[in-house]
Queue: 4 jobs
Job 1
Amino acid sequence: MNNRNKIILKGQLKVPGDKSISHRALIFSTFVKGTNKIWNLSPAHDVNSTINCLQALGLEIQMLPGNIKGLSTTYHSVLSNGIESIRQPSTLLFAGNSGTTMRLLSGLVAGLPFTFNFDGDASLRKRPMARVLDPLKAMGAIVEYKNQKNHAPFSMVGSSLKGSSFELPVASAQIQTALLLAGLQANGETTVELPATVRDHTQRLFKYLNIPFKVQIKMQEEKNFEKIVVTKLTKSIEPFEINVPADISSAAFFMVAASCLKNSEIELLDVGMNPGRILIVEALKKMGANISIEKNREESGEPIANVRVRGNSLLQGISINGSEIASGIDELPILALAGAFSKGQFSVRDAEELRVKESDRISAIVQNLKLIGADVEEVKDGFDIQGKTSLAGGCIWKSYGDHRLAMTGLIANLLCDQPVQIDDLDCVSISYPNFVRDLEYLRQ
Ligand code: S3P
């Protein structure tokens, strides 16, 4: 009997707060004069990088004891004196491993008349930055790359920005958000259009915080494209309180594990169900997983639900491509593992963006799936997997310093016949410091 029949996941779990929303709630606090309260902020090291940078910009951020719905917990208090109070930081803006920190903060400071020095760790230094810095330069910011064009480290000298129109070639919520943050400080209108629908946390937060913006719909080849339009913010926004939903990208690992482990039944609580993030649920359902979405409701402007997953163990391969990719960009490594344990073929195409994430995730997932015994072939923009009902494992899984790869390896360890060891687990903290503890908690 292989592991998939022996191991069971059972119980209820609320995974930590959403990383994307946490970055935004912290960064948008800059536009407030006063103190904001953020409940359930993500404990991810990436979010800590944003906190450190904002502290370098003069915000006062601290974790305090609090009480929500009768339960003792903590919240983050974020004190800001408004965007106009930001001065030249005395230190580097070090974004660690976090692309979101570096890209969103470049948009935030592009309109401020100081010099900001940005850098990140070795992985972040490899990631493309011109996709956000070129449009910011077009709005008036001055950027100087220190070592290599398109890459951190770089300095940015902010200036008086002019509103501009952008039709971005990449469906990236990070770039869109960075340009909208700059647009809120620019003269005239700034318009940002993307080639596909992405997570819309920024627009939802704009609405929740009463930041004015417009949505224009463009019809082309029977598809709707959204343009987001902002103008200069003329006054500070009111102090706010926000409760961050549980992170669907973290919940995704448990969804796949429970789907593949027969007799499992888990309930993931208060999961963010942003329409630009739910490929993981839609794809698993299409594959035949037994998933139900319960108690749909709204929290701080975001849709949330409880997600119940029951083990099925015989999933069916599917194809994922085109505009679907953007709504599961962070979940493709763990979905690929589900694909390796399915009947038939599991294919991913149009996912070249995966090559410029925390690692080259196409190559990394293909290499690791081969190590556990899967039949997988790499192509330029994705991969094809011939699913199997059992996989040997008994190998060392390489995380390439990429948190999502390391967590996928820990789930592979549950599903394979022989133990799978992960070469580096430290990187898990980039998004989910207590992942191993929570996985153990659900494991029977
Ligand atoms: C994010 C957007 C995505 C995602 C990243 C977080 C965000 O990046 O991969 O983990 O918070 O906006 P892209 O927008 O570059 O695809």
Job 2
Amino acid sequence: MIELLAKPVVERIQSGVSERAANFAKAHGRKPKLTVVLVGENAASVIYTRKKGETAIKLGMESEIITFPWTATPEDVKTTIDRLNADPKVDGILIQRPLPPSFKEEEVLYWVTPSKDVDAFHPINAGRLMLGLPSFQPCTPAGVMEILKHYSINPSGKLACVIGRSSIVGKPMAALLLQANATILHTHSKTPDLKAICRQADIVIAAIGKAQAINSDYIKDGAVVIDVGINRTPAGKVVGDVAYDEVAQKCSAITPVPGGVGPMTIAILLENTVWAAEQAEAAKIAR
Ligand code: NAD
């Protein structure tokens, strides 16, 4: 059994991002810039936001974090996003989730202009992904694809079971695997007899947000298992959606939690930010 660790994959991506950021700064006299907008003080969001900023700076980029209190109105935040959309020195904008209940996700999705939407959440970018057009990469699913590539696991011709259909993970994950010529079993909470369906798959991607719910009954011998879940047990331990210890006895390869998919997300986010900066400058030259 191979443990699919993110570390070497993240190091390779970060080294590419850092080189591109340095070349960009030399050519344009400024660093690629990521601005994160954080509403409230959700503990996990504060940690994720800080980590994004610190990693951006480590890779030679500029980072800005704009914070609002949890009581901020959608109008307050939207006004700031409009300003950032118009600022030529800001390349990537990210609105950290979760947002207060007064923020309607179906409206917020449109706020960040598509060319700065480094999370790839805007409906135009989601549509471009579905059509296979060049666009920002959906950070977590693209991170999964990088892990597969790094460990020479080619999805082409394989049966892949994606468990979960969120817009952030499950749906773009299925789209990327389909583009890589896998055959997709796309399952969710209403799928009957999930175990029997999942047991057919060569590659299982678990993204359901239920601690250790996917046990060895769901996995065929020798399958590759990718655990996207990040859950905290009552004892405070971080675990995935997969029951690691028993599944590891049955599969051929598995991502651990922590240390598997999790660290990939920021690496892809920063790769998207450099790409946004390069595209913005190229568009200026074309004008
Ligand atoms: P979500 O709650 O938005 O979606 C969960 C999906 O799982 C839903 O589509 C639902 O139908 C399905 N589901 C729920 N219970 C199920 C069950 N018992 N059987 C089958 N399907 C079931 O969650 P999400 O945002 O997609 O996140 C999923 C997990 O991935 C969470 O643990 C989250 O913390 C983690 N996550 C990790 C990263 C990262 O690694 N950087 C990024 C995003 C999400």
Job 3
Amino acid sequence: MRHCDSELHVMGRSEYVDDVTPPAGMQHAAVFGSPVAHGNIKTLDTAAALLIEGVSAVFTFSDIPGEGYFGAIVQDEPLFADEKVFFQGQAIALVVANSYENARKGVAACSVEIEELPVITCPREAFAKGETHQELRVFEKGNVDPIWETCDTLVEGSIDLAGQEHLYLETNRARAVPCEDGQIKVYSSTQSPSATQKTIARILGLPMNKVEVDVKRLGGGFGGKEDQATHWACMASLAAYLLHKPTQLVLSRGDDMRMTGKRHPYKQDYKLGLDTDGRILAYEVSHYQNSGAFMDLSNPVLERTCLHSTNAYDIPNVRIRAVPCRTNLPSNTAFRGFGGPQGMFPLEVAIEKASQKIGVPPYRIQELNLARRGYVFPYGQELEDDRLHRTWEEAKDTFDLEQRQEHIETFNSENKIFKKGLALMPVCFGISFTKTFLNQGSSLVHIYTDGTISVATGGIEMGQGVSSNMIAICCKVLGVSHRRIRCNSTNTSRIANISPSAASATSDLNGNATIIACQEILAGMKRVASEEMKCEADEITIVDERVYLRGDSSVLDWDTLVLKSYFARVPLMAHGFYAPPNIRFDPVAGWGRPFHYYTYGTCLIEVTVDCIRGTYTINSSKVVHDLGRGIIPSVDLGQVEGGLAQGIGWVTLEELAFSDDGKLLSNALSSYKCPDGDFLPDDIQVKFLENADNPGGPLGSKAVGEPPFMYGIAAYFAIRRAIEAFTPISESETRCPMTPEQTLLKLYPQAADSFAAFSTDK
Ligand code: MTE
Ligand code: HPA
Ligand code: MOS
């Protein structure tokens, strides 16, 4: 089997929200956003918009019939600015017209007068001024304070870690259709249909059973549509509800980039202490999260940052401090890894610095400190197997680490202008929502009388292949061909209280629920077959669409058994529900067993830096990844390669730039560069760990969506190794991403100094 949408995608025939034929009289909406990042609204003039031909209405905060404020964690965010604005692009008004073009003309005609207030874009500054969304949290294991003086090597420093634009191909959009009796049906590009349903109900003052949300697929989400697809669905619904006309809202790329939040940038301080052998004795890190204007998901993102701050390493004494800081930027949000990458990054910086002091390659320190079975993480969970080590050892052996290192040293001694570097990145990523209650999945399986099957779950297809996985699971459990099975849209009227498709757990949660539903139907069908064949139900199996008795083929085939079951009045549909056992987490104590299990892997990246130009080539990325027993090999491989590519982009090319007054400068694909096929390494090798069934995952599989993202971090350190072969890196603050510009400045520190003087002189 392959990805069930692949043919539709390649032919351009897969349908997204706005591809479906519009209902008669559909209106189009566009958003008027704040031109400044912080201030009091003095006057808002929308009269001119209403004069534009085709414009039928303009809505603002005061038009909201229900609650004007909402939010996943705290309800601190207004749908439209309420007297004040907190970031550039914050929605102030919604213009509705008979066409997309006219709605945008209406937006251009709106004007607002704002009394500007001071703008904060830096989380350290926000923290100093007491602008936080939540108190500073501390996670501790052992006690770092008395350890420092016993260490042979101490390194400390600060980090400026950048955010990342989601850059899903399909920008945010929704279509809302008013229905009889004040009901509303909403097609939304959201990862969280139930949260969207709940928020629309809240905004409109409706009960949830009057709001139906339907999602066929997303053109990518990457976390960006876990919490921030809601706004647009609410706005389309508001217009549809108040005007009694279907309304569609599609964000332009520019609006999507400036109006929605991104991966959280962080400022960080670290301190690492080691003994003479390079064993880590103590680690302290402070995370100042740039959360943006509203809370959104900043709290759980920061929590995962804390849980993954020691990544794959056994460290006896740890102190992690973390605070979400309020700034005048769009609220930053979920993004593949959900704070995990930001947690892992500073420890790798610290290990790199320590390795230089000690005079060994960083991978020796990484290896020496890799966590083993029995290790207890600072939040109380124990490492229950040695697979992390297996991925490390296999990566080292399979990809000839020592030989590659020697090759690079020889190359560097023989070449003046081109320098090579390599780096390894081990990853240990916890699978489960850290908000334990979210770990639940549901599935509805229907078998029709012609023998075809439809499966609908809470899982959202965003390209990651969850629909295909659901089909593959039905196919395996029911013993039929995947050609008989279709995966239905995700719909709040079929499945209630759907958890976001996130945390890499979608196939796990909904896949296990699908197995339960299939097994329930199958049990009834086997009873029918056993009566027919005068045997026990457990002597029956169905393989390749044929019924087997004690392993021998019988005359009964799938189609016949389905019909017989129907006439015997045995249910051919079932609802399965699954919640993983044995997980719990107390967020106040920061203690528990938050994760069902971990996904592991090790990545080796090699690069070549052109030391004249500062440009670089990523030569190879080689990964050993623990996938459990994969469901569909090509889909899993796509997830590993895609995550890796996105991770490489984060630490190399992708540079978000905001002006001091909070304007997004990298606001188009001309000024925001993400990796393309040419940039990515020609040599990508992914080896899956063998004999690695995962008892917690459906059919022995493991969650794969997010963990490969963090492999990309190796690219950052590989580039730095190459730079170091040319000239020592000296810096007061470690900055990520390592763009070619940054690389050039690191290669020529004297030039960097005069460049800095030049930029301050203007
Ligand atoms: N892959 C594609 N093609 N598109 C996406 O939007 N999102 C990622 C990952 N892989 C994404 C993707 C993120 S952030 C997550 S959490 C997981 O997929 C969600 O899906 P899963 O739970 O089925 O792995
Ligand atoms: N991961 C992803 N999304 C989430 C989580 C998480 O741990 N918690 C809430 N939303
Ligand atoms: Mo993924 S960041 O959990 O949507």
Job 4
Amino acid sequence: MPDKFTVLTPELHRYLVEHGARQDELLRRLAAEMAELGGIAIMQISPEQGALMNLLVRAIGARRALELGTFTGYSAICIARGLPDDGLLVTCDVSEEWASIARRYFEEAGVAERIDLRLGPALDTVRAMPGGEPFDFAFIDADKVGYLDYYEETLRLLRPGGLAMIDNVLRGGRVVEPDLDDEGDRVVLELNERIAADERVEVAMLGVSDGVTLVLRR
Ligand code: DHB
Ligand code: MG
């Protein structure tokens, strides 16, 4: 095996989800409900990514978490389940339609009291936040065009030693062959370059799902 990575086939992916993701009945049901809506389900995180997020939130003992891009709540539930009973997740989305599905599952998962779901553009939500009550964990997954701003605002709101995960950093593999007419591709490419050289953070880009970058604020 000359390469330092194992390319995932659908069978290998199924194997790792079955052995390492512990997707419970509620998350399975949420994923199935999204799958019924068709292609939009692509925006939902994968089970193994949810497991990773839950584990990271617990590992750093996070009490306050921030999420940009709630969609229908799968990732928020994975984060919130890793928080203590008196922990807080602030999550935001522009879609009332998605948020209403998310709220339903937050209630059912028993994490609704830990989640503050704010409707509106992610940038408005984070810009309105004072830096005085920093977050321990953040997940950036809203519209890709806003990623440069989301990254800067997130770093401002993250405590030293705080951890952020950025979703979709491989853009379906297009980072090595970008569609320069696609603003999302251009912005994510730019952000990846900036993070690689950003002295404020430790960085690890992982080939999980569509690629996630972990940054630890120094
Ligand atoms: C899209 C957005 C996401 O956050 C994602 O994980 C996958 C796809 C999209 O906008 O297509
Ligand atoms: Mg995403």
